[in-house]
Write a structure and sequence with these properties.
ten-stranded antiparallel β-sheet; alpha+beta; 743 residues; eight-stranded parallel beta barrel; Beta-galactosidase, Chain A, domain 5; Immunoglobulin-like; 3 domains; binds alpha-D-galactopyranose
């Protein structure tokens, strides 16, 4: 709901957005948009009393036209601070005019309330029906240049979520250049506690590791300049208090719905005010706006929790599941798949795939995914990207006969593509060397022996659409794994004039969106899985097209505990693709039991990634059980409320816990599934686990033992797991417990 009143200082509008149980409040003050509050809900009070009136001196300029001696843009908490007119903190906007100057001043012009959430353009964004959200659009204008900026705020009615976007329009007769533009900026003047930035860092095989960094005076930020949201930092950060835990304290999560270069930063000023900003990273960004043109930012999403990280995560999970993921597979039960990558790597042919498929069918697995190596002359990673035609030496007769035989076994068929790439050794590169991103007179860097296609070019996208569509139409292909295995370098386009080369990194992302839009529209029944050398571009923009994402190339169950639990900070289990792979694991050489590998992989969109033909009968029988369990618990795992109970790095009683635990609870709290993993066992270990999210008044029965417990007992006293495992606790052992409400 959006409540608009006039405040007591100047009589200008005060906007109070109520989103679920959160409030977001800001006002107009002499035309400036000032931020007042973002956090757990507050009443409809005139919050302008919160404005800090610090005396200023020569280091703090003030606008010439405001009567209040205390008012300075360098101190005032703002909604969309601009460069060059007295606020020296990081700007949300910097625009260079035709005369070369960059000073801007934005003043309130008007506002309007729109039902639901308007679709502003074709970039990925959350959606909401008219009865699910309200949108406030505030129009600001620069009196000097005429530049217009529209800020869009959407408040979800049932979730503590406010989304923001900005649109900059150039109504003048001269071009201007947008050199920096944030999607959201807000100043927390009242946070008071020592604050931290919680973020997710990583690299290949170690994606989304949770880290909490104390804020310091100056800027603490996470970003990507890799041309993709990246393994290295996820486009998310949360402002939390030092005392914030999973269950208590403030946690304001800020996520950018963007697959490209981003920056999320928290800047602390001398008065303790924290500017929290998210947007496109501006290092190599310069967007020319010709007269009449508008630039619309990606969407930033705020998930607001006063009750710890767990609630913030559940808010994001629900938002992405219900207001971002699209298509029939967003809701539909996904097939349990077997992927041949770690089973065969590049060494396969139709017969090998069919042998795996036969065993898969016998185990109850529902889809075979043929990974890299089926096209061109690709027998290793040094050639053929871009040559999307079937290698008939491996697959005689092409895809149709293979897929027919796989379908006849009762399995669906899926296929791997890496559309955005081109191998220097390929027919495509021979024909179109200028289709690869690159700067003339400079060698292109290689990564995994490949270059990146210039996705800003319509002809490149047409080629990809035609060739991918051709393959997808040639057989009954029901799934695509969309990979992206290197980052961008020498990002220049032979197709754009010099004054637009600063647009390439963003245009690349828009080109990617365009291709994804066309493919998903042309093949509406396709299940798309995102991938980028594992989870390198695991972000909300990709989830808009692909409801599941390959979480990491590290498939070791113990390593996956950190990766998957870190991922759940922002993303729902339904989006995390998790596979049981071989033991010893191919990445770490660690040996883990089949049972535990299954328990961990069941934390998300479940599947297998190993050569089924080499398994024992006992292991195959286990697969049948695992697949059956996964189906039985599908709704709980994928749509239940998620609780992190123990993180692998948690410290309890001064000792490092060498275990991990999580659980999901059905929305009506009648059922729960708890997973507990011992990473490293010790002598005579004692394990208690306190559960969460249950009905304290209800009684629950645990399926394997038949024991009945009170909900409050399970949550407050906990359950004693010391003897919960037959054979005792060993390194990498685990249990899954299913609780059902009995009264
Ligand atoms: C990437 C993916 C893997 C696999 C290979 C194929 O590394 O993350 O899952 O598809 O590419 O080359």
């Amino acid at each position: 709901m959006i409540h608009i009143s006039s405040h007591s200082l100047t009589g200008e509008p005060l906007f109070h957005l109520r989103a679920g149980d959160a409030s977001y409040v800001f006002c107009v003050f002499h035309g400036y948009l000032l931020h007042l509050y973002c956090g757990p809900a507050v009443g409809e009070d005139d919050l302008t009393a919160l404005l800090v009136k610090v005396g200023h001196d020569s280091v703090v300029p003030r606008p010439a036209d405001t009567p209040e001696g205390w008012f300075s843009l360098d101190i005032a908490p703002q909604e969309f601070p601009v460069y060059g007119t007295g606020d020296y903190r990081p700007s949300a906007l910097m625009v260079r005019r035709a005369d070369g100057s960059a000073a801007t001043s934005l003043r309130y012009a008007s506002h309007e309330v729109l039902p639901g959430k308007p679709v502003l353009d074709r970039q990925p964004a959350t959606f909401a029906a008219p009865d699910e959200a309200d949108t406030l659009a505030v129009t600001l204008r620069d009196p000097g240049s005429g530049l217009i900026v529209r800020l869009y705020y959407t408040a979800l009615r049932d979730l503590p979520v406010v989304t923001r976007r900005a649109a900059a329009e150039n109504p003048s007769d001269n071009p201007v250049t947008v050199e920096r533009i944030a999607s959201a900026s807000l100043d927390f003047a009242t946070l008071m506690e020592p604050a931290e930035l919680l973020h997710l860092w990583g690299t290949w095989g170690r994606e989304r590791t949770i880290e909490r960094t104390p804020l310091a005076h100056g800027t603490v930020s996470v970003s990507s300049r890799r041309g993709a949201s990246s393994h290295h930092h996820n486009p998310f950060a949360a402002l939390v208090a030092q005392s914030t835990t999973e269950t208590a304290g403030p946690a304001i999560g800020l996520s950018l719905v963007y697959a490209g270069n981003f920056e999320i930063a928290a800047d602390t000023d001398p008065f303790g005010s924290i500017r929290f900003q998210a947007g496109i990273e501006s290092t190599d960004f310069a967007w020319r706006l010709d007269p009449g043109e508008t630039f619309v930012t990606p969407e930033a999403v705020l998930a607001i929790s006063g009750e710890g990280l767990g609630k913030m995560s559940r808010t994001f999970h629900c938002l992405w599941r219900e207001h971002l993921c699209r298509g029939e597979w967003a809701e539909r039960e996904r097939p349990v798949l077997v992927n041949n990558w770690e089973a065969t790597y590049f060494k396969f042919n139709s017969e090998k795939l069919l042998a795996i498929a036969k065993d898969a069918a016998a185990c109850g697995i529902e889809m075979l995914v043929m990974d890299d190596g089926w096209f061109g002359v690709r027998n290793d990673d040094r050639s053929s990207l871009g040559d999307w035609f079937v290698n008939e030496e491996k697959l005689p007769g092409g895809l149709a006969p293979l897929v027919e035989r796989i379908n006849a076994l009762g399995l669906k068929f899926g296929i791997w593509f890496e559309p955005e790439m081109i191998s220097p050794v390929s027919r495509l590169f021979d024909a179109h060397p200028d289709w690869a991103l690159g700067t003339s007179g400079r060698d292109r860097s290689v990564a995994r022996s490949q270059y990146v296609l210039d996705m800003t070019r319509p002809d490149v996208r047409d080629y990809l659409f035609d060739t991918i569509s051709g393959v997808l139409s040639s057989a009954n292909i029901e799934y695509v794994k969309w990979d992206f295995n290197r980052n961008l370098t020498e990002a220049a386009s032979a197709d754009l004039p010099p004054e637009r080369q600063g647009e390439i990194l963003h245009r690349y992302v828009l080109g990617l969106y365009d291709l994804l839009d066309r493919i998903t529209a042309a093949f509406p029944h396709l299940l798309l899985e995102g991938c980028s050398s594992g989870g390198g571009r695991f972000d909300p923009a990709m989830l808009y097209y692909a409801p599941q994402y390959w979480t990491s190339d590290d498939t070791d169950a113990m390593e996956r505990l950190d990766i998957q639990l870190g991922t759940t900070m922002v993303y729902p289990c339904s989006s995390m693709s998790c596979h049981v792979s071989a033991s010893p694991n191919h990445q770490t050489r660690r040996v883990t039991s089949f049972e535990t590998r299954g328990h961990v992989a069941m934390g998300g969109a479940f599947g297998y990634e190993l050569d089924l033909t080499t398994l024992t009968d006992e292991e195959k029988a286990l697969i049948r059980h695992q697949v059956a369990d996964y189906h039985r618990f599908y709704a709980l795992i994928n749509r239940g409320d998620f609780y992190r109970l123990i993180l692998p790095g948690d410290t309890v009683n001064g000792k490092t816990h060498r275990c991990a635990a999580w659980m999901t609870v059905s929305e009506d709290r009648t059922e729960a599934l708890v997973t507990f993993v011992v990473i490293r066992a010790s002598i005579h270990p004692v394990y208690f686990l306190r559960l969460a999210g249950l009905d304290p008044e209800a009684r629950y029965q645990e399926e394997s033992t038949g024991a009945v417990y009170g909900g409050s007992t399970l949550m407050n006293a906990g359950i004693n797991l010391t003897a919960a495992r037959k054979g005792g606790w060993t390194d990498g052992s685990s249990v899954v417990m299913h609780f059902t409400r009995v009264s």
